[in-house]
Fold these 2 entries.
Entry 1:
Amino acid sequence: MFESFKVPKDLIPSDPRFGVGPSLIPTEAVEKLAKTGHELLGTSHRREAVRNVVKEMQEGIRTYFKLPSDYEVVIGNGGATMLWDMIGLGAVDKTPYHFVCGEFSDKWFRANKNIPWLKPDAKKVDFGLGINPVEVPGYDFLACTLNETSTGVMLSELPNVSRDTILAIDATSGAGQIPIDFKKSDLYYFSPQKVFASEGGFFVSIMSPKAIERVERIAKDSTRFIPESMKWSHAIENSRQNQTYNTPAISTIFFLNEQVKLMNKLGEEQVVKEAKRKAALLYGWASEKSYLSPFVVDEKFRSQAVATIDIDEKYKADDLAKVLRAQGVVYDIDSYRKLGRNQFRISMFHNVTFDNLEKLTKIISLAIESSN
Ligand SMILES: Cc1ncc(COP(=O)(O)O)c(C=O)c1O
């Protein structure tokens, strides 16, 4: 249907990367890394040069999120998927309660179901609907997902939880663009290959004193087996010294630091303002065109980081995505594979410019309207 469609020259975006992760890493950051020559790559991560980058990144994150002074920025190897296990083993007492609204929140729930001594439960809603966490009596841990990357649903409110409950937030694709009140959060974590424009295989976990106390207390339970690689004590001790427990990818830390610096130049408020402007563009377009509709119906749950837009069954989103990729013009706008919808999923991450998103809307409209 779209084979003969050719993107007009004036609509070609300056960067084809619209994917929700791994996301657009600025080529300037890659060039800057190359220019560090012998100073970082291939040197010890326990020496000053690399540790200074780690420190700058940790402090930059603290500044960006305006963290309370007693919160810690804990880092380590392995992305959010690894953290699900590390959290289940070392931060949940017994009863985690999950708020499930998509594939990633469900995967976290399933990870806890695999740990024999945990008794997890969940509230699940149909994919495309949103759900805000609330404290549930009898549960020591609440697990929620700030931005469900599979469906484009974001949280709109967080509860105040009691002293004995940990509020944990998987912020992987929302961190940086969906602000929260950190005083409410105990364990907020993300992998950096989304808004923070780095590579995967790494985690950043922002921990309240209550979360630190919890992991320290659980660590003393000698009946609980926790593999060395997943011990919170190692991650915390090393992070305090601007290191990781085992060897990290230095390029990942470098790119993350570059992105934190870039976003700190504007500050969170301005970054969020830009994100909202992009969201208004995409959802406005999807609402206006008869052959499109925003997948997330309730506006307060519509993500300002990942847009999911359904397309009329007459047109095949995958076919168009394939044609645009083959022309080298637009990459990775396919819907989440397991969701199985005729849909585009588009990154509104900080490095994807408003102008390029506007061009993308015009490309898709032109392709569809000229196929009739
Ligand atoms: C919300 C969310 N959680 C967890 C993950 C898993 O992250 P990783 O692949 O870094 O383990 C992803 C990946 O896309 C995600 O979007």
Entry 2:
Amino acid sequence: MKILAEKKALELLNGIRNSFADDVRMNYEHRAKSCLTCDTPGACCLDEHFVNVRISRLEAVAIGGVLDSLPIERREAVIERIADAVERFGLDDRDHPLKTYACPLYERGTGCLVHEKAKPLPCIQHACYESAADLPPDEMLDRAEQAVHAVNIRTYGGPQPLLPIPAAVERFARIRQSS
Ligand code: SF4
Ligand code: SF4
């Protein structure tokens, strides 16, 4: 199998994310409550009993790229929050599927730090819908996740573990640090 360059893989990942986000936006999101008028913005990202998003190595590398572009002080604050989350919620390389956590990528006033360029697929799918029937179907998320899985295999030569966001970023993202 010819290995895909990570840069090319990140472009493919971006294409999968954008097409998934377009589908959600055009066909489902209009039935959901607007996050702009939410009384508890970020509750969905900061609820340590709710967030259970798992991501792959390539998605963690994409998140690392966004964090790398932040000014140094802000970047280091996020790195610290990520380390805190790994420790506080007992997240490690061996995933425990039922473990939940508060996401360290949420910043009050800004929202999701990776919203534009590296938001994970389950986060794109998530919104507050009145009726479960209005939600984007799980098969849609499954298809997009399978496509990301295939790009991971082509890039890293084999299947990659799915880990909670803080653990995946800590393990796979190569974020610049000052010391
Ligand atoms: S998804 Fe729901 S809880 Fe989260 S910000 Fe939007 S409206 Fe608020
Ligand atoms: S990645 Fe962004 S949208 Fe997803 S849980 Fe974290 S802050 Fe929320």
